[in-house]
Amino acid sequence: MTPRAYLTALGAIIARETLRFIHQRERFLAALVRPLVWLLVFAAGFRAALGLSIIPPYQTYITYETYIVPGLCGMILLFNGMQSALSLVYDREMGSMRLLLTAPLPRSWLLFCKLLAATLISILQCYAFLAIAWAFDITLPPRGYVAALPALMVSGLMLGALGLMLSSFIRQLENFAGVMNFVIFPMFFLSSALYPLWKMAESSPLLRDICAANPFTHAVELIRFALYTEWNLPALGWTVLAGAVFMALAMWGYDPARGLVRRKS
Amino acid sequence: MTSPSDNGLVVERLRFAYAAKAALDDVSLRVEPGTFCALLGPNGAGKSTLFALLTRLFTAREGRIVIGGHDLARNPRAALAAMGVVFQQPTLDLDLTIRQNLRYFAALHGLAGRAAAHRIDAALDRLGLAARANERCRTLNGGHRRRTEIARALLHRPAFLLLDEPTVGLDAATRASLTAHVHGLAAEDGLTVLWATHLTDEVGDGDRLAILHAGRIRADGRAGALRGAQPLHDYFLSLTAEAA
């Protein structure tokens, strides 16, 4: 197989995921409605309850809606990462995963293609969300929309790798609901998506420490700073590290010799 | 090292177990190039496990598989590139058209652009699917879905075609036509075919036959010679009845 063959496969996997996504309009709507409800309803109710001080990267007082925009972008990436994991479990049960895994390319490359395709679709949704937020007058620095792209990519890959890892360990679709509860909600609420960490520390230093260790917090902070055209290097480092660990575990889980796939194939 | 006869499909002393339960026990099989080999076995015999190992969905700790001279453990990509596979489970994306499904598969095998389009057209023509190329797979009946999967498995011109119970759920006429078509692929195109089934009427007297039961090969040879004067169905039952 030539390098071109690798790219051909990548293009085909992205095209397939895109077509699948287009066919599932409800999924697109759900992915948009969820963060919009948080932004337009939840944030409106909480705006008065939560006083925010000026913290980096903000240089002035901001509204609560503005504060939670990066966290809601993270939410889209998180939900989509889990959704694509769900589709992997579905693919495996339905057999189409077999087609992918028996292609004459390295399995790690094929899984990475799948991950990248899912991330690109997530990023499209993030921009659709940011556009709607902009229409509701929740605006960010214009250059921030461009600067956020690599941050969304890194965060999306990390969360997608988490989903990929989980999918290699989950036997059946039915087991997945539990993972949604035990992964998505704790990751989202134990993070800086809805409240800054100092606010959490006022209630519980332990919870603050847990939030600080949560890779999702770092993904959100990476996006937050990028939206203000700043690079948060520690957040980038932690996000990349977490992504690499999740990806390595996913590859281990899908390794034909390791026996994790075999139990479910 | 591989010997000249390794150019076919070679399985040597393969063992595999799910936890404590042995699924394949010392299975050896050698299919010469251009042969139609039926792998006949009742449900639970280990056919699908053998297919999963042949397609490297997972690997065995004991034994060796060689496909067209390529050791599956040492050179998996060359071995996988040499085979087309039709799995027991449907693997078509039902929301995509026949052509989109084939294009996706072609790309996974490094084929794109005009070359892929030519091959897709030829494959669809051959299986009588050209007129339906732009229909979504969801609208196809079981027989057409299987035909599509066979057309797809041949796109990259493999030397080996592996089919795991491809006729399950199909009516008698469609079964007969698919079976005849794949026999033709071996006889006319020189494809090496491994056809797993539990139905004796899909096996001809001239076919190579391996009977797998409870994880072991119970008989291996020319079907007509193995069954002798008795119907193949009775011969098969006599070998596999103890588990019933």
In CATH, what is the homologous superfamily of the largest domain in chain B? P-loop containing nucleotide triphosphate hydrolases
CATH topology title of the largest domain in chain B? Rossmann fold
How far apart, in Å, are the first and last alpha carbons of chain A?
26 Å
Number of strands of chain B: 10
Q: Termini distance of chain B?
A: 42 Å
Main sheet: strands, sense, barrel of chain A = none
Helix and strand succession of chain B?
EEEHEEHEHHHEHEEEHH
Radius of gyration of chain B: 18 Å
Helix content of chain B: 25-40%
Q: Report the mean per-residue pLDDT of chain B as an integer.
A: 90
List the total number of helices of chain A. 11
Order of helices and strands of chain A: HHHHHHHHHHH
How are strands sequenced across the largest beta sheet of chain B?
6-7-8-3-9-10
| Structural domain count of chain A | 1
Total number of beta strands of chain A: 0
User: Strand fraction band of chain B?
Assistant: 25-35%
Shape of chain A: globular
Task: Give a written overview of the molecule.
The complex is a heterodimer of chains A (265) and B (244). With 265 residues, chain A is mostly helical. Chain A contains 11 helices and no strands. In chain B, the strands form 2 sheets. Chain B has a 6-stranded mixed β-sheet with strand order 6-7-8-3-9-10, sandwiched between helices. Chain B has a 4-stranded antiparallel β-sheet with strand order 2-1-4-5. In chain B, strand 9 and strand 10 form a beta hairpin. The longest helix of chain B is centred in the C-terminal third of the chain and has 18 residues. Helix content of chain B is 34%, strand content 25%. Chain B is of the alpha/beta class and 244 residues long. The chains are: A mainly alpha (265), B alpha/beta (244). At the A-B interface, helix 1 and helix 4 of A face helix 2 and helix 3 of B.
Brief summary of the model shown:
By secondary structure, chain A is mainly alpha-helical. Chain A has one domain. Chain A contains eleven helices and no strands.
